[in-house]
């Protein structure tokens, strides 16, 4: 039994290194997940917990329950994600480099030695940006140095006003004393203020490629690249030059604005600037990654910004853009760039307030565009901007044909996201709409209740997809309009002369709990159903019964669906 369980223990470890997950014992995956059950559920639960504790480092503590399904006992283990400062979780028998895995889709992938190193570095504060280079102050841009010294003395007088220039640079970690007693420039200082950092570190630059096709291969004319260049210099210079390269390769599109149309760039400059700055500032500067450049790739349908090193510290993809969530792998570099101005501008390179992602998302939302897709691959981090308006004329026409009244603007955005093939969950819905969690949950539940979307999974694993009845309304059916679902008769027939709860009505009708809730609310408002007893309508224990008609034709009265 203990050996057989090992096949289930290792997924527990792999889920711990990613977003968590659920392991089910007692189903046959090869037979379309038929329920087979386990013979001794209590012992299997105890053995599974013991192996997760004894064979994993650090110990994994799953929440294990026993459930009865089709007269069979099934063991369900809910695996929490391990805290970032404790990753990677690995199998003791293989060691950290050979026994560390992550879950990818339906399979498992062993972490590379570099990915293990990245995870280990997140347990503390890396100081690679403070490492000494062979450069001296003579290799720095004198104008940027003077601007930095003046600004530090002005905005942080208690720390810098009384210091000489070299002492200001030393305290700001632009320079440090080497073992031979000489002053050497730190890596952070070189990247923030250097004349040409790539003389020492050739790959600390940006590669920009504009591909003619969505797949990145040459087009029918034999054109491999529309544009291909290397962006070099200090970070302030690279930000300006990279933006210029992207802008030079962008076209403009027309969008509806008020009573007319206006031409706007394909991608908002604020979003592009934040993505480029984040990639340069938060990239991994460890010896294992210093030979990898930041990459910007432009395709006809998207723009991708990629940097070495995944997210650092407590920040996760799910938390990106949330207020108060901020962490930096390169603390000294980021602190410097708060004070270093962008050439020709009054603003500094970054703010270090955790607002960059929020600004990026807000600018895309204001432009009516799809939200960026963030991918953390441990060894790299990637931002993808889709090149299209989320609520295009075609999508607006599709929404009209759904025939639903009373949808909020944010619900229309959620439906448009699903139509574009994007993943919709509570987090992505909040990111795209700017709603708080409570309102987002209510609006998503209303979409389920309207039978526009279907929900799979629960709690943090809840995902949404277009319902089958909505999927049939395609753009090519210009004259087709989806009739609104009306479940009044089904709910009233199920009630009959009984007093039933929402759950009982859902079981009888086969409708979702949210759909039953919606139509009970409508029927109560129309005086056809009432709550039996003093329970609140929000209570899951509330029970319902049909009202006695006040007139012979009450049930045949005309009902206005548009009042929704």
Strand order of the largest sheet: 13-12-16-17-19-18
Give the CATH level 1 class of the largest domain: Alpha Beta
Q: Structural class from helices and strands?
A: alpha+beta
CATH-derived architecture of the largest domain: 2-Layer Sandwich
Share in helix: 25-40%
Distance between the termini: 57 Å
And the CATH topology of the largest domain?
A: Heat Shock Protein 90
Mean pLDDT: 84
| Low-confidence runs | 256-261, 551-564
Question: Biggest β-sheet: count, sense, barrel?
Answer: 6 strands, mixed
Helix tally?
Answer: 20
Form type: globular
Overall domain count: 4
Regarding quaternary structure, what we see is: single chain
Protein model, in words:
- The chain is of the alpha+beta class.
- It folds into 4 domains: 2-121, Methyltransferase, Cobalt-precorrin-4 Transmethylase, Domain 2 (2-Layer Sandwich); 206-372, 2-Layer Sandwich (Heat Shock Protein 90); 393-471, Winged helix-like DNA-binding domain superfamily/Winged helix DNA-binding domain (Arc Repressor Mutant, subunit A); 488-563, Winged helix-like DNA-binding domain superfamily/Winged helix DNA-binding domain (Arc Repressor Mutant, subunit A, Orthogonal Bundle).
- Helices cover 35% and strands 19% of the residues.
- The protein has a 6-stranded mixed sheet with strand order 13-12-16-17-19-18, with helices on one face. Strands 1-6-5 form a 3-stranded antiparallel sheet.
- Strand 5 and strand 6 form a beta hairpin.
- Helix 15 (426-433) packs across helix 16 (437-449) and helix 16 crosses helix 20.
- The radius of gyration is 29 Å and the shape is globular.
- The relative contact order is 0.06.
